[in-house]
Design brief:
Helix content is 32%, strand content 26%. It has 325 residues and is an alpha/beta fold.
Length: 325
């Protein structure tokens, strides 16, 4: 039986030029390289310049994804952008990206699920592409997380960085089997009762300010390993595959210990895990597509590979997708 699938035809990532090492942070907050690496696995992160908005990062990643797909901005009819650090309260940063890229009039909107944003956005875009409503979609995760940091809180300010990643989604014919290219299955979750574990203490309708990121790290870690594992299993079941079938696991790059914990719980070979947290840190919604782009650019991830992506963020939100490239 012929079915329409959402096929990823191009991937791209962008990191700002400025690199901030752990030693750099030790000069402004009570921490050191050994403390950070032991607890997180992070060695450095990138930071956007003062004149760079999140839309600028998104545009650079989108250009690379379009080039990889052999498409141009003129082909794009849908932009779904995941971010928790938008340029403005409104309009959507996706609309700003549409203008900056020079795309024609089409559909453009933001998705806000914090670190899970790209996973959410990919499934939302699938609802357009796999139903024939979009011929060329850009799905972007872009963040300037360093602008939400309280630089006196060593428990959070060392964890985050800035960056953007993007994929191009196009419709492709499949046979309705696990051999099809495209998004094969997903599972999305949210538990709003866990809001106080990870949040920003400001907003336009409460404080009238942007606010700063607050987190109960130990609690987030506990929920991450358990909840992500469940969503991954559900996504694999939805796709009709097993964990053993997965060629590459591309997790949200939050913490090295979480990556190891999830891989161990699922019985995944560590050699199949794409890990970029050491030099990207946690770039929230950008972390999965950034890691994806790195795996493609260095030749590890190839066309036809079966990929498993997952993320967990404030909300608490979490989710997973199975995609054959």
């Amino acid at each position: 039986m012929s079915v329409l699938r959402s096929v990823v035809t191009g991937v791209g990532g962008y990191l700002p030029e400025t690199v901030v090492t752990n030693d750099d942070l030790s000069k402004i907050v009570d921490t050191n390289d050994a403390w950070i690496q032991e607890r997180t696995g992070i060695r450095s992160r990138h930071r956007a310049s003062e004149d760079q908005a999140v839309s600028d990062l998104a545009v650079e990643a989108a250009k690379k994804a379009l080039a990889a797909a052999g498409r141009s901005a003129a082909d794009v009819d849908l932009i779904v952008l995941a971010t928790t650090t938008p340029d403005l309260t409104f309009p959507a940063t996706a609309a700003i990206v549409q203008r900056k890229l020079g795309c024609p009039v089409g559909v453009a909107f933001d998705v806000q699920a914090v670190c899970s944003g790209f996973v959410y956005a990919l499934t939302v875009a699938d609802g357009f592409v796999a139903r024939g409503h979009s011929k060329c979609a850009l799905v972007i995760g872009a963040e300037t997380m360093t602008r939400l940091m309280d630089w006196t809180d060593r428990g959070t300010c060392v964890l985050f960085g800035d960056g953007a990643g993007a994929v191009v989604l196009e419709p492709g014919e499949g046979q309705g089997t696990t051999a099809d290219r495209g998004l094969l299955g997903f599972a999305l979750r949210c538990d709003g009762t866990k809001q106080d574990l990870l949040y920003v203490d400001g907003g336009p309708s409460t404080t009238g300010t942007v606010g700063k990121l607050r987190m109960l790290g130990n609690q987030v870690f506990k929920h991450a390993v358990i909840n992500i594992s469940e969503a991954i299993t559900a996504a694999a079941n939805h796709a009709g595959v097993t964990i053993a079938d997965i060629d590459w696991f591309i997790p949200h790059q939050a913490n090295q210990r979480i990556l190891h914990g999830v891989a161990h719980r699922l019985g995944l070979d560590e050699s199949k895990v794409i890990q970029t947290v050491a030099h990207h840190a946690n770039t929230s919604a950008a972390s999965v597509p950034l890691a994806w782009a790195e795996g493609v650019s260095d030749g590890r991830i190839k066309k036809g590979d079966l990929l498993l992506i997952e993320a967990m963020g404030g909300g608490l939100t979490w989710g997973a997708c199975v995609v054959r490239l």
